[in-house]
Amino acid sequence: MIKQEKFEVINRIKSLIVYLENNLENFPKRDLELKHKLNNEIYDLLKKCYLANETTNKDKKYELQCELVSAVRYIDFLINLCYEKKIINHKKYLQIGERLDNILKYIMGWIKYTQNVEQQS
Predict the structure, then answer these.
(1) CA 48, 54, 55, 61 torsion-angle sign
(2) For residues 5 and 107, is the Cβ–Cβ distance under 8 A?
(3) In sequence order, which residues have a C-beta less than 8 Å from that of residue 35 and are 6 or more positions away?
(4) pTM for this one?
């Protein structure tokens, strides 16, 4: 069960990366730093997810999972900033927000599952 959960999180993050790259290509020059920050954060999210997926140390896994939650919330902040600066329209803002919410739900489910497995051990 946990393997499916972890890979679903990874698949959703990959899907978000593709979506963002296809829909955030026309950034104004004055906001390129924001675009770079957003790209770095989303790729770091994927990397942390792979690390959490591979680690066998329970404490390290939990720490990485918590970092994933924080990273998704930070990415959400950056997307909100893009919306406020009118870099993205309302429709894209809602679509990206929905994707981030789904990723967050899967991460939270993964955390709960991992904690339940630890309690049963």
Answers:
(1) positive
(2) no
(3) 24, 27
(4) 0.89
Query: Which positions ≥6 away from 54 have C-beta within 8 Å?
Result: none
Report the number of secondary-structure helices (H) and strands (E) in the chain.
4, 0
Report d(CA 54, CA 6) in Å as an integer: 10
What CATH architecture does domain 2-12+31-115 belong to?
A: Up-down Bundle (1.20)
- Token pair, residue 56, equals 């066998």
Task: List pLDDT tens digits, range 1-30.
Answer: 444 445 789 999 999 999 999 988 888 899
Cα separation, 103 vs 96, in Å, equals 11
Q: Which residues of 51-90 are buried (b: 16+ CB within 10 A; e: fewer)?
A: ebbeeeeeeebbebbebbeebbeebbebbeebbeeebbee
> Contact 19/11 with Cβ under 8 angstroms?
no
Q: Whole-angstrom Cα distance, residue 24 to residue 119?
A: 43
The Cβ-side half-sphere exposure at 50, using a 13 Å CA radius, reads 7
First to last CA, the chain: 16
What gap in Å lies between CA 72 and CA 44, rounded to an integer? 10
